[in-house]
Amino acid sequence: MTSRRSFIRTLGAGAAALGGLTACGGGGGSTSPGGGGNPPPPPPPAVSGPILVVIQVQGGNDWLNTLPPLTGANAGAYRSNRPAIGIPESELTPLNMAGTGDVGLNKDMLGMDVLHAAGKVAWIPGIGMPNPNLSHFTSTDLWGQGAAVPDGSGWLGRWGDAVFAPSDILRGIAVTSDIMLMVHGKKRDFVSVVNTSDFVYPAYLRSTATPPDANFLKTGFLASLNGAAGDPAAGLAASEGKLWYDAQATFSTLIKARTPSVAYPGDASFTNPRNLTRLSSQLSSQLKLVAQMIASGIPCQVYTVRLGGFDTHSNEATDYPRLMGALGGSIKAFHDDLATIDTTVDGKTVKAQDRVLMMAWSEFGRRIKENNGGTDHGTSVLCFCAGNMVRGGFYGGGYPDLTKPDANGNMVSTSDFRGLYATLLDKFLGGDSKAVLGATYTPLGFLG
């Protein structure tokens, strides 16, 4: 089993269809660091023992209703295209976005105004890819691959291939019941942990609630390994099975019970100043588990979590406030919860809040023009990163021009999503973005 100390010592180790938003400059620079009010302080020195939490906003977030434009031609286009579902200005917190006009933060995104005012949120509006696909599944895979020339693996999976030792069985964890392509490597995948007592593998294969006998599983894995000589596919499957078994055995010895220090969306005591009803606990439950794993000393460096429900073809005026409340409220509660967790890095006590960076993404955005009480699949995404190490503000190539959509009525992306990945790999995870992504992409400026 990998020791906590040996894990910390290794933390710093380190298709053509996607061509168009090119390498070497596709990432874009900062358009407005700070973004309103007094400029935030500069980011702290390089994070020791970094932990990345990747949040999928699943379904295609209609981010024009997360950060609507407040001024200029964009504001006029927004209002004229969304007479029924546009967010009233009275329901927006103004944020200054120098160069492309002010925007307003949806007040239903609970707690994000506080994090923004503290300079802890980097907003990246209009990020996307050339030749985007409007299928949920294909677009999710394209975001997951993140490669100049896709090869069927994911960007975090390839990073893991380069930095994970065979004994690093819990260094990458998916807190979901599936393994996204994003965390699929050529050599191994992340493991899936959805609660403190079980794993997806081989749980999803069984038809009863009783876990299979551990010794039976171990015997089967070892037999498969011994019989896999000369068969690469069988060998890989056997190795993956053994990895899952080892992860389960190790996890059970490390995980400790924990009560969150703050209320999350879904909790009866959660503070809800917008009086939003029926807030989903999907994301908050996953982030509670992540906080528990961090507090227990689980040696994970990257977690993936998800909030679904954003495929808002109809009834958006009713559903979107709840989605915003669950997303923002969960992120803010998790950030506050981390402030109460002490971790150890190289023998020193470090608050978890000073180690964790959250990155939120969605597979695509929505059309500019509303349609029957909702919005259809579109292009161009809002990504954002939050944490103590972030230099808050707006980054990338700027807000898309809503008056000049493409031939299908979709926004034209202003920066390449791989610039964001390069930022996280080079400036946070300590990886080699060129090796992982297959080309050089200009990092964004929110991590210094």
What would you say this structure looks like, in words?
This protein has 448 residues and is α/β, with parallel strands linked by helices. The protein folds into two domains: 7-196 and 258-437, Alkaline Phosphatase, subunit A (3-Layer(aba) Sandwich); 200-254. Helix content is 30%, strand content 14%. Strands 1, 2, 5, 6, 7, 8, 11, 12, 13 and 14 form a ten-stranded mixed sheet that branches. A two-stranded antiparallel ribbon has the order 3-4. A hairpin with a 2-residue loop joins β9 (342-345) and β10 (348-351). The longest helix has 23 residues, at 232-254. The two termini are 35 Å apart.
Outline of this structure?
This protein is 30% helix and 14% strand. The chain is built from twelve helices and 14 strands. The strands form three sheets. Strands 1, 2, 5, 6, 7, 8, 11, 12, 13 and 14 form a ten-stranded mixed beta sheet that branches. The protein has a two-stranded antiparallel sheet with strand order 3-4.
